[in-house]
Here is the input.
Amino acid sequence: MELELRHLRTIRAIADAGSLTKAATALGLAQPALSAQLKRIERSLGGTLFERGRSGVRATALGELVLDRARIVLPAVHELQEEAVRFARAGARCGPRTAFRLGGTHGPLLGGLVDRLAAAEPGVTVVTHTSWSEREIAASAAEGRLDYALIGACGESAPPEAGRLAWAEVARDPVFVMLAADHPLAARPEIELAELAAEAWTNVPGDGCFADCFAAACVRAGFTPACVYETDTASCVHLVQVGRAVGLCRATFPETPGMVTRPLSGAPLLWRHLLGWHPEAPAALRAADVVGHVRAAHTDAAARSSSYARWLADRSPVLHNAVERVNR
Here is the structure.
């Protein structure tokens, strides 16, 4: 794992708060997820950054070194981003917008949004940019290089650039597990996460909190994943189909030969689909329309997943109606 700006922000937040509990609250994370993230950062830097005591946490010598650099780097990057936004906004006022510039992580909704925008406004070009990095997509929208950022967040975690972008929750889905069609648990309608403790896992890369949320969910279930293959979507599907691993996916994942998707009991992991834009950019004027298009794309994707349809049908009417309200 390479050190990123978000890691520096996490380290600074822990130092400023003086405890992991307070820092987790400030960052909008569960404490187990923050602890798992800190361990990953420490492994990448080769040493312990904080020592725990009865009164909280205290930076080690290595931690102080990293904090000194973070206090220089983070304000400089913030200033650069603000200047870039002002520059991009000034350029946007020079003439009418002739394109929708969309950014998204890999998933079913970006294609659906492109289709709906192209149909609704055939005279306007739709330009897309995809990345595994949710923070890159959000930063591009904050800095004026993209009009809209279509990403996801795990559970109640705050999206990146929460202070500079306006965010709308498009939909909220449970996270399902992918299994080979002949897996011993494939015939089950629902699976306990603990029942998969001995499995190898596969998942797509990303710089959001999902890996930490997954690790924390596994700890709550009583195990630590022994092996996680991080690779592209097609390779994840192949590893599942041949029985080499099980994988995690959104509930809207399409039907795929050779594998099945199943809900995890109690929905220990949730995925929120989010659309973000800069509130002072021209894109803000069209945001409500674009949110509507994304929600329609999500409805279409959900309808194509028979396992998700069964999961919704099995819920109580109250929960079913609550999900429907969020997803409208």
In short: Residues 190 and 318 are 20 Å apart (CA to CA).
